[in-house]
Amino acid sequence: MPSPCGKRSGSALRNAKGGRLASSRETRRARSNTNYWMQRCAVVDLALTKDYVKRNVAVRFFFKPYMNLRYKRGDRQYRKSADSSWLKSQHNRYRGKRCFIIGNGPSLKSSDLDLIADEFSFASNGIYHLFEDTSWRPSHYIAVDRYFIESEANMLANINLPCVLVDLFAEKYLPKKSEHVVFVNLHMDSFSLKKYTTTNISFSDRPHLRIAGGYTVTYAAMQLALFMGFTDIILLGIDHNYAREVTSQNRIVQRGNNEDHFFKDDHAKGCLYYEGVEYAYELAKEKAREKGARIVNATRGGDLDIFERLSLEEVLGL
């Protein structure tokens, strides 16, 4: 399979010290220190503060000019970048082809990934924890969650995959960017005076300018896959069954250790917007239909029933 972003190849992920693949055990050990958890608490507090800003009309009134100016200025700057130009060149590059979007749910098995080793695929976040168990590697790796990028900067700096798509936020952590790393411009819609809801979500037909946020990295992958021309998009390992408490605003508040990933992913804790995620998926389904494409869920089990379901064996003709 040709390299989507550049010519570099080799081992998928190496630790900063000297070439050995970093294990999930080492990663968990690094997260056990007090500073790590203090930083995580601070991030949750910041998320709640931002949520208040979004929902308070008076605060939005004063923030609106600044936020919209900030968004527009950032969009103009990104439009002139080499990253934007490269993404634009990918429009319909894979017209009529099939790809897989891989989640990090507990149903995901390395044996299933072995079956799609020769397929185009998008994977995200901590998927590299499975690399020691499978020869499969994603053709496109994506990370847009800012806290994940900040806390996993060392991992991202040493990941070596055909195409690594990361949010612009990562620029300060990847100052000497490799040719296979592409920065993407992801943010929510323009700051509005309208009542804030978790369904204030759009779909970007031009991700080379901006990718629309949708409370999950999977939504970003869907926008990119459709832009690149894939007509059959298969979801695998997207269980969508987070252990949760749901507030009156339909926010999922996750407590304690999360058992809903194939590894104990500390980044999955915090606040997730359940209603927003499902709205984003519905929007992606409709956009796929308009483009003559389809999104199929081949996840083994799980609670995501928005998309047509097929087994992985049916998809692969096994």
Automatic annotation (TrEMBL):
It comes from Eggerthella guodeyinii. This is DUF115 domain-containing protein. Residues 88-243 form the 6-hydroxymethylpterin diphosphokinase MptE-like domain. It holds the Pfam family MptE-like. Residues 1-27 are annotated as: Disordered.
